[in-house]
Design a protein that fits this description.
By secondary structure, the chain is an alpha/beta fold. The chain has 11 helices and 14 strands. The longest helix has 16 residues. The protein starts with 7 loop residues before the first strand and ends with a helix.
Length: 307
């Protein structure tokens, strides 16, 4: 039995490496049965936070309860109830799919694992490849096998550290279908990701930057934090337009997304003509401006640029 209360509850959780505050005063509450996405760039503190919640790293300050257990005093109980998929989860390439599952079952003390193995092979659609060496699997199949190994002991909380980074789009979709099925079964999932489009699928999102949680809540509530109106232009010259407008508006107001340029303004009718005139003076042409709703990326940039 796990303890009572939320799946994760941290108060001022911090981890320092010398003068570097990798995680700085993290207050995080994750309810049971929800998918919570912790989003941030490289170096934001996502992996450090996950490793503390797994009991791998000892906090420098603060407190945390995981599945009702004190993270420091009851670390062994926490480890028995969680599944952790790290960025560099180590499958054994010279073992088959079946043998990897058996190996991780032994690590977790799962004696009668065969029924569970069949469930997971069917669940991840890896049954046809059960005799294949892990080193001969595709990147997406390796991630699914790693997830299956993480689930072999029926964890109550799944901690995933950027599980879809470097995975092709088709495999990413398949991986998300599996996560959706796990949520329907009542599993709680805490996932870190650099992809804000993935975070849109979460129950709640936390925006992490510089080791600090800048905002937390359902995606729609995070988007509602956006101030001003977003004007979007597209076309081959948007990079040139970005270079012209950046010094005029600043990095948290001019945002480049591939072939789309976003400019945050207070009043579109008043400021739009000025943007067009500034570009025209520099001989830069873009498609017509249009108002667009804010995305999580827009809000994240607004909250973190210059912070």
């Amino acid at each position: 039995m796990t303890g009572s209360g939320p799946a994760v509850d941290t108060r001022g959780l911090s981890r320092h490496f010398g003068a570097v505050r990798a995680v700085d005063g993290l207050d995080l509450r994750i309810e049971r049965g929800e998918l919570y996405c912790l989003v941030g760039p490289d170096g934001a503190g996502k992996t450090t936070a996950i490793r503390m919640l797994c009991g791998i790293l000892k906090p420098s300050a603060g407190s945390a309860a995981v599945l009702g257990f004190d993270l420091v005093r009851q670390r062994s109980a926490v480890k028995e109830k969680i599944g952790y998929l790290s960025q560099r989860f180590s499958l054994y390439g010279d073992l088959t799919v079946d043998e990897n599952l058996e190996f991780f079952a032994e690590i977790h003390g799962v004696r009668d694992f065969r029924t569970r193995r069949e469930e997971l092979l069917g669940f991840t659609r890896l049954a046809p490849f059960r005799d294949r060496l892990a080193e001969r699997l595709s990147g997406g199949m390796k991630q699914k096998l790693a997830l299956a190994c993480t689930l072999i002991h029926h964890p109550s909380l799944l901690l995933l550290d950027e599980p879809t980074t470097g995975v092709d789009p088709v495999s990413r979709r398949e991986f998300w279908k599996i996560l959706s099925s796990l949520l329907r079964e009542g599993l709680t999932i805490l996932m870190t990701t650099p992809y804000l489009d993935e975070a849109e699928r979460a129950s709640r999102v936390g925006l992490l930057s510089g080791g600090r949680l800048r905002a937390s809540g359902p995606p729609k509530d995070i988007r509602a934090l956006m101030t001003g109106t977003i004007l979007e232009a597209a076309g081959p010259d948007v990079r040139a337009a970005y270079r012209v407008l950046l010094p005029l508006k600043g990095p948290n107001r001019v945002q480049l997304f591939g072939d789309r340029l976003h400019v945050v303004v207070e009043n579109a009718a008043r400021e739009g003509p000025g943007l067009a005139a500034a570009l025209e003076r520099q001989g830069v042409a873009v498609g017509g401006w249009r108002e667009v709703p804010p995305s999580l990326e827009n809000v994240f940039i607004m909250l973190t640029e210059g912070s």
